[in-house]
Amino acid sequence: MMGYALRRLLAMIPVFFVVSGVVFLIVHLVPGDPVDNLIRTGSSPDQRAAIIARYGLDRSIVEQYLTWLGNVAQGDLGTAIVMRRPVADLILANLAPSLALGTWALAFSAVFGILAGALAATYRDRFVDHSLMGLSLLGSTVPTFWLGLLMIMLFAVQLGWVPVSGARHWTSLILPVLTVGLGGMALVAQVTRVAMIETAREDFVMLLHAKGLSRFRIQIAHVLRHALIPVVTILSLRIGLIVGGSVTVEYVFARPGLGSLLIRALGQRDYPLIQGCLLFLAMAVMLGTLLGDLLQAAMDPRQREEAAA
To answer: How far apart are the first and last CA of the chain?
Structure first.
């Protein structure tokens, strides 16, 4: 297992360089100039040139990338141009609200997604199956920002059950968690259903039926347990939501977090802050994928054997 983990970790190194390069190029291709937010009206060209030189924006893209990459390797994400604070400090200051939103949304998706998928697989081709899969299809296709606005109109404005926005009370988490979690729940339910149906066709399941075990016990204790391998992979890919929350959802509900910080940085064309946020979110997705591979390998030794072959 340690050898497999080491190989997967080493395989992430070239991926990191590719991701960092893409993030850097995308940020610098965005129209606009962060210097425009710093200079005052009527500033001379010399003053503008001095500010550009101070932040190294007068150098070539390659030089800027290599300098930034070297600083990142030392744990320095740079200093925000507009806010004039270290990027790492800004990310850490906005990390807790995003972690709260992402963690609860992931837990909601996992619990109710697996439950819905298991029920749909157990009552395959019946009313329960068609209803749950229809709802999951609807949940996976509705845009999160539109769903968030609908929930605000219904539960916050019309019924007044929860706050409209902000993060002053734990009840302000309910609507954002539902908005983010419903999409993940739909995906988990669909994967769980398909995996359980495929597992139910295995020979060992027929043997369990022949031994006289109840259908419910077979479905929950055996079929579901074996079907959780692809579900774990899907959930691990969504670990990026734990760190990044949801950019659009945080914006719709006016919540603090990495998503709101990223949108603010995009509006200000703050290159170091945008690069730091995007790289942080990309690393969260990469680490989530690594964790999913390790969990899947721990649950299924055949994967470790195939990787070593």
So the answer is: 14
